[in-house]
Amino acid sequence: MKRPAANNIGGALSDAGISRRDFLGFCATLAAAYALPTFSVGAIAAALEKASRASVIWLSFQECTGCTESLTRSHTPTIEGLILEQISLDYHHTLQAASGAAAEQARDDAMRANAGKYLLIVDGSVPLGNPGYSTIAGVSNVDMLREAAKGAAAIIAVGTCAAYGGVAAAQPNPTGAVPVSQVIQDKPVVNVPGCPPIPVVITGVLAHFLTFGSLPELDDLGRPKIFYGESIHDRCYRRPFYDQGKFAENFDDEGARKGWCLFKLGCKGPVTYNACATTKWNNGVSFPIQSGHGCLGCSQPGFWDAGPFYKALSMPTTNAQKAAGIAAAAGVAAGAAMAYANRRKKAAAKAAHAPVKVEDLVQEKKP
Amino acid sequence: MSGLELLTWARGPGLALALAIGLFGIVLRVFEIQALGRKADFAKARAITPGSGWRTIVSRSLPPPGMLKRAPLTYLGGYVFHIGLAIVVFGFAPHIELIRGLFGIRWPGLPNLFVDAATVAAIAAMLAVLVGRLTDPVKRLLSGFGDWLAWTLTFVPLLTGYAAFHHLMENYTLLLALHILSVELLLAVLPFTKLFHVVSLFMARWYNGDIAAKKGVAA
Ligand code: SF4
Ligand code: SF4
Question: What global pTM score does this model have?
Answer without folding.
Answer: 0.83
